[in-house]
C-alpha cells in the first residue's frame, strides 16, 4: 500500500499553550511529514522542536508533495484557482488535498439549517472539468473539527480543527491517503510531557517542572525524593515514578496481585458508531485461532450475533477486551438483549475482563504508551501492526455510508483491521502476563510470536 | 393570633394595619376509601379520601392520565402514592418514577411515601436517585427500588445509560410529576422535551405508565399538562380538602415617603412579636441574604421589646442539607417559633402546620403570593397571613387594588414553548444518543424531526437515515450541553476556617459575583463572615470566608450595559430603526456599600469590589430612537425635565414590550431582559433594547423582531387603555417586579406617543386587535 502523508494540524492558539517539552512530545508522538498551520506564521519555531526541520505549511498558495500525496494550501480564491490547476496535473488519478480557510460549516438551530459557507465562490474558483480521470479533491477546512467528513454537492470536506476531548483540546494528526482515505488520530494536549504520567495533572506538572524534573529524570528518581514536594504523598510519588519508568523504558510494571484470566478470548467489535444501531463485526482470537463474524447487511446482524454466541458457547475462556466495560461489553449486552433476549442470561454469565480497567482502574499494572489507547500501548510495547489506513471511526463511517446506499466497503480491509486490533490486544495481554511484580524490560522482546498473519476463518452472514 | 389581636398587642402600633380580608373556612368533602380502592388497600387506610383524591384515582383506574391542581396541603401526594400502591398490589414487580423539582423535595417525598407505605403495611421501597446519591448506592437503587424519586436534570443525564435502568423502566407503571407548575419558561421548555425523551425510552422497554401530575393553582392546568407530557390529561381541580378561616392582613410600615420604614425591618418586628406570642410563623423574604439579616433583626427586636426568648432560624438553598433538615424538624416539632426563608420553602417541603405567614413585600406573581400564604394553616386551624408592603410602585398598586391579587381566576399561566427550534434540536441530539431515531419518532418530535436530523447530519453530529436509524456520531455527550436552568457556569465552593462550624453550599458564578465579592460581609445562621479570598482561576473556583463581628452588612451595586452590537437584520419605522442581532450583555458588580444592621443606612462611600464584569453574548432586538424624538417627546411630556420624561417613555415602552411578549411567543417574561439608554455610544442616539436572558439566545428576541408591529400595537393598546391614574403606570401595564431601577422613571403617556410614532412609520400596520381606532 502506498505511504500516506502524515500531517499534524496545529493552529497557533493551540501551539501557544504548549511548553517546549510538550511540543517535542507531540512531535514524537505524531511523527508528522509536515505541520499544517491554518494561518500566517512569523515564528515557525513555535510549531516544531528546535532540532526538527519538519516543514511548516501555511496558507500561501503552495503545492507540496509527500510520497504519493499532493497537498495544497490556499487562503484566497485566486490561490484556490491556481493551486487546483497545478494539483490536478500533479495528482494524476489520485486524490489531492487542499487546506483552506474559505469553507466553514455553519449551523443555525433556529432555522434548523446547516450551510457550507463560502461554497459557491469556492466551487467556482475550483472549477471542474467534469472529464473522466480528473483529480478528486478532499478539502481540509481549517475551522471544522477534525472528526468531520462530509460531501457537500461535490465538495468533499474534511475537518482540520482540534477536537475538544473532556475539556482539553486534542491535536489532530491526519494520515492522508492517495485514495482519499483520511485517518485521524487525536493527541490530547493535556497528556503531553509530564502530564502524560499517571497521577500528574496541571498542578503537579508545574511543581515537578519547577523542581527541575522531566520524564527521563523522574524514571531514575527514588520516590521518597518526590514525596517531599508540595502536593505529593508517598503513594502518589511512587505512582508517578513508576509511570515515568513504564513510559520511558517501554515497560509494563505490575503494581497489583490480581491474576489475569488463564484462558483469554480476545475480542473486538465493529459497529456503526459510538452509540451504535448495529454491531456488524466481531473478531475473536482464542488459543491462537482468529475468527471473524461479519454481517455485510445490517439485517444479518442478528444472525451474526447468534453465530457468535453459538461459537462462544463452545469455548471455555474469559472474554478480554480493551476498554471492554467502556464499550464492547455493554454494546454487546444491549444488542444481545435486543436480538436474542433468551440468550442474554447465558451471555451475562460469561466471564469478562477489561484489560485497560484491570491495569489502570484496578491498579494492577502501569502501562507504557502516551495514552491509554490500545494502539499507543501496543506500539510502546513493540507491536508492529499492518496499517490498513483505517480507524474505528472510519470503519464505522464507511459502514454507515453502505447502510445508507453508499459504496460497498472493502470487506477484506475491514476484516484485516479488526484482526489487527485483536492481535494488538493479545500482544499487550501477553506482555502484561509475562511481567511479574519485579519490573522486567520487554522492550526487546521479539514480536515474532504474535506476528502471525495467518488468515483466520471468516464466517459470513 | 388574628388581625385584631395583632393590632391590639403589637408594640408601637401606629395604624399599620390597612386592610383585613377573610377567607371563610370550608368543610371537607370526603369519600369512603372503600368506594375507590380495593378491599385490601381500603382496609388499611386510616382515613377517608377527599373528593378530589377519589376523583383522580377513579380517572386513573379508567386508564386516564391526571393532573391534580388543588390548594396547598390538600393531599395531592396521596393521589400518586395510592396509585403506586394499587399498581404494586396488582403486580409486585411494578415500579414507579417520581420527578420532583428540587432535591430537597425529593427527600421529603421519599419520607412521606415510605411512612405511608409503612402505615399501609406495604413492602414498597422508595429511594432517591440524584446527584447527592452516593455512587455505591446508585447501583442498588437501580436494581432494587420500587419507587425511584429523582429530578429532570437527573433524568437528562441518566437516559443515555438506559440499559442500566432496564428493570425500573421496563416495569414502570406510574410516572408522577410533582409540582408541575414549577416547569415554566426556559426550564419548562427543557423539561417538556426531557419528558418526551423519557417516555420514548420507556416505550422502548414496553412500558406505558399512567401519568400523574400535581400542580399548584395555575391559570392553565390542562394546557400546561398537555404541553409538558404530550398527551391529554384529566384535570382534577374541585378541592375537597377542608380549610380553616384565614385572615389576610395588609400591613403598611410606619412613616411616609423617604422616611417610611423598610418592609423587611417591619417584618422582622412582626416576626418577633408573633413568635414570642406563641404563633409559629414562616416569614418569606426576597433573598438569601435577607433571611440571615432578618433572623438577626427579629432576635434584636425581641430583646429590645423584652418579648422573651425567640427561637428562630434562617432557611435558604445556601444551607447544607443537614442544616435545612434540622430547621424543618424544628418547625414540625415546635422547637422553633419561626423561620425566615426564601421561596425555597414555597414548594411543598413538609414543615407541619404553621400558624402564620409573613410576606415581606409582594412576591412578584400571584401564584407565589398564594403559595406563600398557603404555607400557614394546614388542616382546619385558623390562619393569619400578613403582607407587609414595600415602598415601591408594585406594592403600592397591590395595596390600592387588592382585587389584583385576591380576585377570582387571577393566577398566572405556566408557559412552555415547544416551538423553539434551538431547544428542540438540542434535545433531538440527546434522543439520538439514547436510541437510534427513525420515522416512528415523529410521534414524539413532530414534523421537525426530518429537517432537524438533516441539519445535524450536515453538521457532523448525527449519521444515518431515518429509514435505517439515525445515531449520534460524536464523542461528547449531548446531554451535558443541555442547560436546564438557563444559568450555567462554574460553581464556587465556599470555605470557612476549619475551627468554624459552618457549612455553605457551593454557589453559581453570578451569585458569587453578586454576594461573595472580596470585602462582602455575609451572615450565615447568625454568624457574620467576611469574604477574604475570591479565587476564580484553577480547577475549582473558591471563596474563602473568615468570621467577623461588625455592625454592618454589605450591599452590592451593579451596572448593566449592552454593547458589541452586531445587527443581522434591520427595518425602518419612519425615522426609527429596528434591529435584530447579537450583543454582549454585561453586568458589572463594581462597588458595594456598607449598611448599618440597626438602621439600614449607608456607612461611607461605596467601595470597589475589584471584580471584572460578567458578560454574556446573546440575541437582542434594539430600536434606535432618533435624537429628534428625544427632543420632541421630552418637551411634550415633561416641560421641567424633558430627559426624565423621555427616558420614562422609553423605559415604559421597554417594560410594556417585555410584559406583553408572552402573547407573541410562549415564554416567561423573566427569560427576557431589557435596557433603555438615553444615549447609546454604538447607536449614537437613544435606544431601547430587549434581549434573551440566556447565553447564546433562544430566539425570543427574534420572534419579537419579526412580529414587532403586533407587539408594539398590543403594548400601546394595553398601556393606553389601562385604568391606572397618573403617568407612572401600574403592575397591570408597565411596572415590573424585576426592574433593576425600581420602576423609575416611567411615563405611560410618553410610551403611548413613542409607540404610536413607531407604528405610523411602519409600512402597513397589522392591527391585532381588529378594532377601528
Describe the structure.
The complex is a heterodimer of chains A (461) and B (773). Chain A has 461 residues and is α/β, with parallel strands linked by helices. Chain A has 15 helices and 22 strands. The radius of gyration of chain A is 24 Å and the shape is globular. The two termini of chain A are 28 Å apart. Chain B contains 26 helices and 29 strands. In chain B, α10 runs parallel beside α18 (421-434) and α12 crosses α13 (288-304). In chain B, 52% of the residues are buried. Helices cover 36% and strands 23% of the residues of chain B. Chain B has 773 residues and is α/β, with parallel strands linked by helices. In chain B, strands 1-11-16-15-12-14-13 form a 7-stranded mixed sheet, with helices on both faces. The interface between A and B is large, with 39 and 34 residues.
Structure summary, number of beta strands of chain A: 22
Q: Please, what is the oligomeric state?
A: heterodimer
Q: Largest sheet of chain A at a glance? A: 6 strands, mixed
C-alpha end-to-end distance of chain A: 28 Å
**Major beta sheet, strand line-up of chain B:** 1-11-16-15-12-14-13
What is the overall pLDDT average of chain A?
84
Determine the structural class of chain A based on helices, strands and strand pairing: alpha/beta
Poorly predicted regions of chain B are 765-773
Question: Which structural class do you get from the secondary structure elements of chain B?
Answer: alpha/beta
Amino acid at each position: 500500500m502506498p505511504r500516506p502523508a502524515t500531517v499534524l494540524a496545529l493552529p497557533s492558539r493551540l501551539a501557544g499553550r504548549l511548553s517546549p517539552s510538550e511540543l517535542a512530545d507531540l512531535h514524537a508522538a505524531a511523527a508528522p511529514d509536515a505541520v499544517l498551520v491554518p494561518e500566517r506564521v512569523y515564528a515557525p519555531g513555535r510549531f516544531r522542536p528546535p532540532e526538527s526541520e519538519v516543514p511548516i505549511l501555511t496558507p500561501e498558495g503552495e503545492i507540496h508533495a509527500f510520497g504519493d500525496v499532493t497537498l495544497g494550501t490556499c487562503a484566497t480564491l485566486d490561490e484556490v484557482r491556481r493551486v487546483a490547476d497545478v494539483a490536478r496535473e500533479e495528482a494524476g488519478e489520485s486524490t489531492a488535498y487542499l487546506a483552506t480557510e474559505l469553507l466553514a460549516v455553519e449551523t443555525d438551530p433556529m432555522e434548523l439549517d446547516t450551510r457550507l459557507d463560502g461554497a459557491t465562490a469556492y466551487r467556482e474558483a475550483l472549477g471542474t472539468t467534469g472529464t473522466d480521470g480528473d483529480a478528486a479533491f478532499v478539502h481540509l477546512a481549517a475551522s471544522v473539527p477534525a472528526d468531520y467528513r462530509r460531501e457537500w454537492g461535490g465538495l468533499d470536506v474534511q475537518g482540520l480543527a482540534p477536537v475538544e476531548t473532556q475539556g482539553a483540546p486534542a491535536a489532530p494528526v491526519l494520515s492522508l491517503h492517495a485514495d482519499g482515505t483520511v485517518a485521524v488520530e487525536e493527541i490530547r494536549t493535556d497528556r503531553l510531557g509530564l502530564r502524560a504520567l499517571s497521577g500528574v495533572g496541571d498542578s503537579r506538572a508545574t511543581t515537578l517542572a519547577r523542581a527541575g524534573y522531566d520524564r527521563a529524570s523522574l524514571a531514575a528518581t527514588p520516590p521518597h525524593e518526590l514525596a517531599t514536594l508540595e502536593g505529593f504523598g508517598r503513594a502518589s510519588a511512587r505512582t508517578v515514578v513508576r509511570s515515568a519508568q513504564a513510559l520511558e523504558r517501554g515497560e509494563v510494571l505490575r503494581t497489583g496481585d490480581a491474576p489475569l484470566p488463564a484462558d483469554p478470548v480476545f475480542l473486538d467489535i465493529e459497529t456503526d458508531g459510538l452509540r451504535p444501531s448495529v454491531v456488524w463485526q466481531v473478531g475473536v482470537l482464542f488459543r491462537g485461532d482468529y475468527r471473524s463474524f461479519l454481517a455485510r447487511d445490517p439485517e444479518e446482524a442478528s444472525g451474526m450475533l447468534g453465530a457468535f454466541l453459538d461459537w462462544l458457547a463452545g469455548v471455555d475462556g474469559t472474554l478480554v477486551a480493551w476498554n471492554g466495560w467502556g464499550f464492547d461489553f455493554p454494546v454487546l449486552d444491549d444488542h444481545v438483549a435486543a436480538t436474542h433476549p433468551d440468550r442474554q442470561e447465558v451471555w451475562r454469565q460469561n466471564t469478562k475482563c477489561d484489560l485497560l480497567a484491570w491495569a489502570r482502574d484496578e491498579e494492577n499494572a502501569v502501562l507504557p504508551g502516551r495514552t491509554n489507547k490500545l494502539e499507543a500501548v501496543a506500539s510502546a510495547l513493540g507491536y508492529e501492526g499492518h496499517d490498513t489506513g483505517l480507524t474505528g471511526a472510519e470503519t464505522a463511517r464507511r459502514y454507515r455510508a453502505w447502510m445508507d446506499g453508499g459504496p460497498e466497503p472493502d470487506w477484506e480491509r475491514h476484516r484485516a483491521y479488526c484482526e489487527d486490533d485483536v492481535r494488538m490486544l493479545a500482544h499487550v495481554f501477553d506482555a502484561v502476563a509475562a511481567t511479574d511484580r519485579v519490573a522486567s524490560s520487554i522492550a526487546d522482546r521479539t514480536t515474532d510470536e504474535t506476528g502471525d498473519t495467518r488468515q483466520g476463518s471468516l464466517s459470513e452472514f | 393570633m388574628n388581625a385584631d389581636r395583632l393590632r391590639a398587642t403589637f408594640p408601637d402600633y401606629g395604624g399599620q394595619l390597612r386592610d383585613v380580608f377573610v377567607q371563610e373556612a370550608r368543610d371537607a368533602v370526603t369519600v369512603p376509601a372503600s368506594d375507590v380502592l380495593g378491599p385490601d388497600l381500603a382496609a388499611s387506610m386510616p382515613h377517608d379520601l377527599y373528593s378530589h383524591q377519589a376523583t383522580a384515582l377513579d380517572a386513573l383506574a379508567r386508564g386516564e392520565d391526571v393532573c391534580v391542581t388543588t390548594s396547598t396541603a390538600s393531599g395531592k401526594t396521596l393521589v400518586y402514592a395510592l396509585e403506586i400502591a394499587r399498581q404494586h398490589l396488582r403486580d409486585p414487580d411494578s415500579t414507579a418514577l417520581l420527578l420532583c423539582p428540587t432535591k430537597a423535595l425529593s427527600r421529603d417525598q421519599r419520607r412521606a411515601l415510605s411512612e405511608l407505605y409503612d402505615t399501609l403495611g406495604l413492602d414498597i421501597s422508595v429511594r432517591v436517585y440524584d446527584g447527592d446519591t452516593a455512587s455505591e448506592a446508585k447501583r442498588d437503587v437501580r436494581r432494587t427500588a420500587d419507587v425511584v424519586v429523582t429530578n429532570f436534570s437527573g433524568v437528562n443525564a441518566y437516559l443515555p445509560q438506559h440499559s442500566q435502568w432496564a428493570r425500573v423502566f421496563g416495569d414502570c407503571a406510574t410516572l408522577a410529576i410533582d409540582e408541575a407548575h414549577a416547569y415554566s419558561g426556559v426550564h419548562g421548555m427543557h423539561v417538556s422535551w426531557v419528558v418526551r425523551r423519557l417516555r420514548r425510552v420507556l416505550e422502548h422497554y414496553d412500558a406505558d405508565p399512567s401519568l400523574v401530575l400535581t400542580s399548584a393553582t395555575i391559570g392553565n392546568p390542562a394546557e400546561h399538562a398537555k404541553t409538558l407530557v404530550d398527551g391529554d390529561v384529566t384535570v382534577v381541580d374541585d378541592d375537597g380538602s377542608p380549610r380553616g378561616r384565614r385572615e389576610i392582613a395588609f400591613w403598611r410600615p410606619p412613616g411616609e415617603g423617604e422616611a417610611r420604614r423598610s418592609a423587611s425591618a417591619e417584618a422582622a418586628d412582626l416576626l418577633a412579636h408573633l413568635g414570642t406570642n406563641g404563633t409559629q410563623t414562616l416569614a418569606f423574604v426576597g433573598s438569601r441574604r435577607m433571611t440571615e439579616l432578618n433572623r438577626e433583626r427579629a432576635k434584636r427586636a425581641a430583646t429590645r421589646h423584652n418579648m422573651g426568648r425567640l427561637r428562630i432560624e434562617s432557611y435558604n438553598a445556601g444551607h447544607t442539607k443537614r442544616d435545612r433538615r434540622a430547621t424543618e424538624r424544628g418547625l414540625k416539632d415546635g422547637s422553633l417559633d419561626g423561620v425566615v426563608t426564601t421561596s425555597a420553602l414555597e414548594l411543598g417541603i413538609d414543615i407541619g402546620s404553621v400558624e402564620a405567614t409573613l410576606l415581606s413585600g409582594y412576591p412578584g406573581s400571584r401564584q407565589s403570593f398564594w403559595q406563600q400564604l398557603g404555607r400557614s394553616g394546614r388542616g382546619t386551624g385558623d390562619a393569619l397571613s400578613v403582607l407587609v408592603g414595600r415602598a415601591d410602585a408594585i406594592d403600592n398598586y397591590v395595596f390600592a387594588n387588592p382585587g389584583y391579587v385576591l380576585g377570582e381566576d387571577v393566577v398566572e399561566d405556566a408557559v412552555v414553548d415547544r416551538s423553539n427550534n434551538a431547544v428542540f434540536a438540542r434535545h433531538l441530539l440527546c434522543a439520538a444518543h439514547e436510541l437510534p431515531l427513525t420515522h416512528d419518532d415523529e410521534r414524539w418530535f413532530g414534523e421537525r424531526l426530518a429537517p432537524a436530523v438533516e441539519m445535524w447530519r450536515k453538521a457532523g453530529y448525527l449519521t444515518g437515515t431515518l429509514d435505517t436509524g439515525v445515531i449520534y456520531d460524536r464523542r461528547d455527550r449531548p446531554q451535558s450541553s443541555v442547560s436546564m436552568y438557563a444559568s450555567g457556569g462554574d460553581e464556587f465552593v465556599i470555605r470557612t476556617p476549619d475551627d468554624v462550624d459552618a457549612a455553605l453550599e457551593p454557589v453559581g458564578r453570578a451569585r458569587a459575583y453578586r454576594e461573595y465579592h472580596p470585602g462582602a460581609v455575609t451572615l450565615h445562621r447568625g454568624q457574620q463572615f467576611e469574604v477574604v479570598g475570591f479565587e476564580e482561576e484553577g480547577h475549582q473556583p473558591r471563596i474563602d470566608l473568615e468570621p467577623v463581628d461588625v455592625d454592618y452588612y454589605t450591599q452590592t451595586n451593579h451596572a448593566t450595559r449592552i454593547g458589541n452590537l452586531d445587527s443581522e437584520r434591520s427595518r425602518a419605522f419612519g425615522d426609527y430603526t429596528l434591529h435584530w442581532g447579537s450583543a454582549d450583555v454585561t453586568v458589572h458588580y463594581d462597588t458595594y456599600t456598607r449598611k448599618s444592621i440597626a438602621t439600614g443606612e449607608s456607612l461611607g462611600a461605596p467601595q470597589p469590589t475589584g471584580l471584572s464584569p460578567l458578560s454574556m453574548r446573546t440575541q437582542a432586538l434594539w430600536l434606535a430612537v432618533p435624537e429628534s424624538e428625544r427632543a420632541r417627546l421630552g418637551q411634550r411630556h415633561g416641560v421641567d425635565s424633558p430627559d426624565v420624561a423621555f427616558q420614562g417613555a422609553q423605559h415604559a415602552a421597554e417594560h410594556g414590550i417585555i410584559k406583553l411578549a408572552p402573547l407573541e411567543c410562549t415564554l416567561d417574561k423573566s427569560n427576557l431582559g431589557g435596557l433603555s439608554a438615553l444615549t447609546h455610544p454604538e447607536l449614537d442616539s437613544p435606544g431601547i433594547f430587549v434581549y434573551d436572558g440566556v447565553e447564546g439566545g433562544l430566539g425570543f428576541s427574534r420572534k419579537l423582531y419579526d412580529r414587532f408591529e403586533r407587539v408594539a400595537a398590543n403594548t400601546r393598546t394595553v398601556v393606553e387603555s389601562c385604568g391606572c391614574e397618573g403617568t407612572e403606570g401600574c403592575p397591570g401595564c408597565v411596572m415590573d417586579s424585576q426592574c433593576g431601577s425600581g420602576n423609575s422613571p416611567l411615563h405611560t403617556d410618553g410610551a403611548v406617543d413613542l409607540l404610536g410614532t413607531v407604528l405610523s412609520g411602519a409600512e402597513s400596520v397589522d392591527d391585532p386587535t381588529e378594532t377601528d381606532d
